[in-house]
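for ur thesis appendix - 3-oxoacyl-[acyl-carrier-protein] synthase 2. copy paste whatever u need, i formatted it the way the template wanted (i think)
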Amino acid sequence: MSELPDNQRVVVTGLGAVTPIGMDVDSFFNGLLEGKNGISHVDAFDTEKFTCKIGGQIRDFDPTVAMDPKEARRNDRFVQFTMAAAKEAVAHSGIDFEKEDPDRVGVFVGSGIGGMDTMEKNAQKLLESGPRKVSPFLIPALISNMASGVIAIEYGAMGPNFSIVSACATGAHAIGEALKTLRLGEADVMICGGSEASITPLAFAGFCSMKAMSTNNDDPKGASRPFDAGRDGFVMGEGAGILVLETLEHAKARGADIICEIAGYGASCDANHITAPHPEGKGLISAMKRALNSAKINSDQIDYINAHGTSTPYNDKFETAAVRGLYGDHANKLMMSSTKSMTGHLLGAAGGIESVACAKMLQAGKVAPTINLSTPDPDCDLDYVPNEAREAKLSVTMSNSLGFGGQNASLIFKTL
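the 3d part is after this line
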């Protein structure tokens, strides 16, 4: 039991998800347990000249399910994903914002890159037709903080509101900072998470030039293979993951259905390299330690870790080293899987959907697998729950996220 009073304990009461394997939380989570694969050949643009031609692309998404058609046209795809996931999370939470103090409701939703599609299309208009053809909605559509802004406008949330940008750790940092905000008494309710829509020509070209993405184009379903000896890079995905957090005191007072407690958060920096993780995992170890301290639990209480697990040669090896470095003998007992094997890497949204996954696993007592793990890398020697979901008694889960710039975030979820 946490030593914090109820007004500082924080719980999850709502979840929302838009992902390559499901357009809502239930379909997303069921897809994870089934080992559903959301990777395919990209058809959002012509990939003929690109070394990577595959991704976790969301198809047949209708933004008007969550936004007025006019507003949907004015906003970038990442904001459309945000609103769809946020509306699901709020509906799931059962909160009636007409009864809430608007100054006590905040929003922290981030995007690692923001409105990439909007920027690329308007840059083309500028080059081909001149500045008068650039949309007057260009700036508000591309800036990352608009995800938080439109949610606040929708629900009249006048409390703390901003967007965190920390590359692939964005969603996790947004959730962690929301936890801190609630613990400090600055809000009663926080809507938080991450969103990304970067399956665009320029984003693909940049990652291809870095040689960061898989070129296993002949086998899209087998391309994202975290911890496997045959992995050759990450596969980009898109979507959004949103959580509604409340103080336990507030949730109890309104009779909310509580999913789990969010008990800990740790953030750190490798201070080592702009893109490569620290080879000894020092930054991640620090983030995990801080999360454990924040949750007031011991390392041997962790049952499961949702790994950053990108399917890149360096990340998977170094993340394994970090877990071994912190957990010692307990590393052999805990389970760790990478859901990116199914969704691809959602960049700034990864921490959001993976937090949704952790909360659902606690609730269901089932652990999502790492699919495509057929030939384990000798340097990756933990229990990655290979290929099939597993029933397990779970009390505490952790989610790790790492971002370019060496930025790390760890979140801890536990049964109440």
